[in-house]
Design brief:
- This is GDSL esterase/lipase.
- It is found in: Secreted.
- It is a single chain.
- The protein has about 375 residues and is an alpha/beta fold.
- It has one domain (about 1-370): SGNH hydrolase (Rossmann fold), CATH 3.40.50.
- About 40% of the residues lie in helices and about 5% in strands.
- It has helices at about 1-30, 85-95, 140-155, 160-165, 175-185, 190-195, 200-220, 235-240, 250-255, 255-270, 285-290, 340-355, 365-370, and strands spanning about 40-45, 115, 170-175, 225, 275-280, 360.
- The chain has a six-stranded mixed β-sheet.
- The N and C termini lie far apart (about 55 Å).
- Bound molecules: 2-acetamido-2-deoxy-beta-D-glucopyranose (2 copies).
- The site of one 2-acetamido-2-deoxy-beta-D-glucopyranose (NAG) has 3 residues, from loops.
Length: about 375
């Protein structure tokens, strides 16, 4: 009983923090006195930006149970966070609701006009990535699902309007983490690390990614924010494999080909398609900064999840009904794999407002104004 009272107190305290954060976001948008220029957000990616697609799939990769959502007004929703996730914050900062869930049968008609979220936990750039969890939408499937949305939009908007609408929309893509942690780094379940060295694997991911980004361009999207992968060697799940509990440096090192290649790809695409804007989100640098300077962000715990079990709370995602840590805004990680709401806010703010070292060559806010 006492424990629950404490949790309730902490929850109400944290709700205040969340509300303050939301108000800050709203002020952000208001203070710049901009008309809303972004027509819609189309979100492709994995659990970092899933807002409930996996609730509709037959998969172990779900987050629609307590304690997920403990700090979210709607409770557990399928977000892999204690509260809001990256796409909620980015949507708030742009003044566009983070689109409805593609897999929800009610996501039809005018409900799709502000965009749609296709992101799916365990999904990757490669179709086989994350298969041991069960159902998920891979990048390829998410692009097909966007085609379905386009067909629905065509029933509501004529072609001239549609091209204008798509050109003013923003596509957010957050992929790659699962291709490492739920594929390349699991040699007992996936053979990719026997078939490819790290450079070859990074190149394989980039080739597939480039093809699908250009497919989205070819059907009319013109503004892209493409996030690189963070320092995956430092997530609690990977630290749990290191005897000292420090970051797995070997894991961080193999990510270089992918991240550097993605940045180079964005440069190349901008050169070849002057009617579009492609931006690279430097996830590695932003989360690296949070982990190197936690005090600057008021984090006191960066090496273990707020919930989960095993070393560093690093073995699995939060267990159903598990009581999480009380001081969640002091944790960089919510569970073994995912940032806390507070860390997601830092990343989102820097993606929307940060300098070119965070979002290259321009940030999401600048892209919205084009
Ligand atoms: C397309 O729709 C817009 C807005 O509804 C309208 O102004 C325009 O005339 C339409 N164009 C054609 C070719 O029907
Ligand atoms: C690796 O696994 C895939 C299925 O995930 C299979 O299609 C392929 O043949 C395997 N390759 C090797 C070299 O074992």
């Amino acid at each position: 009983m006492g424990r629950w009272n404490n949790i309730n107190k902490v929850v109400s305290g944290l709700m205040v923090v969340v509300v303050v954060m939301m108000v800050m976001c709203v002020m952000e948008v208001k203070s710049q006195q901009q008309p809303r220029r972004v027509t819609a957000l189309f979100v492709f990616g994995d659990s970092l930006v899933d807002v409930g697609n996996n609730n509709f799939l037959n998969t172990l990769a779900k987050a629609n149970y307590f304690p997920y959502g403990i700090d979210f007004s709607g409770g557990p929703s399928g977000r892999f966070s204690n509260g809001l996730n990256i796409i909620d914050f980015v949507g708030n900062m742009l003044g566009v609701p983070a689109g409805p869930v593609y897999a929800n049968p009610t996501t039809r008609g005018t409900a799709i006009l502000n965009g749609v979220n296709y992101a799916s936990a365990a999904g990757g750039i490669l179709d086989e990535t994350g298969r041991h969890y069960g159902g998920r939408f891979s990048l390829n499937q998410q692009v097909l699902n966007f085609g379905d949305t386009l067909n629905q939009l065509r029933t509501m908007i004529n072609e001239t309007e549609l091209s204008r609408y798509l050109a003013k929309s923003i596509a957010i893509l957050v992929f790659g983490s699962n291709d490492y942690i739920n594929n390349y780094l699991l040699p007992t379940m996936y053979n990719s690390s026997y078939v490819y060295n790290p450079q070859q694997f990074g190149t394989l991911l980039l080739n597939n990614y480039a093809r699908q980004i250009l497919a989205l361009y070819s059907v009319g999207l013109r503004k892209f924010f493409i996030a690189g992968v963070g320092p995956l060697g430092c997530i609690p799940n990977q630290r749990a494999n290191v005897p000292t509990g420090r970051c797995a440096d070997g894991v961080n090192q193999i990510l270089g080909t992918f991240n550097e290649g993605l940045r180079a790809m964005v440069e190349q695409f901008n050169k070849n398609h002057p009617d579009a804007m492609f931006t690279y989100g430097n996830t590695y640098a932003v989360f690296g900064d949070v982990l190197n300077n936690p005090a600057a962000y008021a984090f006191t715990v960066i090496d273990r999840g707020c919930c989960g079990i095993g070393r560093n709370q690093g073995q699995i995602t939060c267990l159903p009904l598990e009581a999480p840590c009380p001081n969640r805004n002091q944790y960089a990680f919510w569970d073994a794999f995912h940032p806390s709401q507070a860390a997601a806010y830092v990343f989102s703010w820097r993606a929307v407002n940060g300098p070119p070292s965070d979002s290259y060559p321009i940030n999401i806010q600048q892209m919205a104004l084009l």
